[in-house]
Write a structure and sequence with these properties.
This protein has 2 domains: 65 residues, Arc Repressor Mutant, subunit A (Orthogonal Bundle); 36 residues. It contains 5 helices and 3 strands, in the order ααβααββα.
Length: 114
Amino acid sequence: MRRDVFQAIADPTRRDIIKLIARQQLNLNSVAEHFNISRPAISKHIKILTECGLIDIQQQGRERYCRLQGEKLNEVSDWIDQFRQIWEARIDSFEEYLEQLQTKSGKHDGRKRD
């Protein structure tokens, strides 16, 4: 089954694995040592991360190392950006409205403006 990046980051353990291997490549045992869950459970998480293309497993001698494929996270960033743009536009609109209210309030309160 081919999974997508959103499925991968939906789980907090997988997000922690991503953070961990973003700093450095680690073998599967080293990844498992950072978590208080079983090695088979970690292997399941690694499999999901691999299936969605977020990590790559490379054989080096007898060890298998996990390496982050960070470009796949661009899908998440791009998806979030569309909402960021909407909210920034709304905030800009709200700021303009507040400035208009302040300007009107200053003109009608009987105080002189210099």
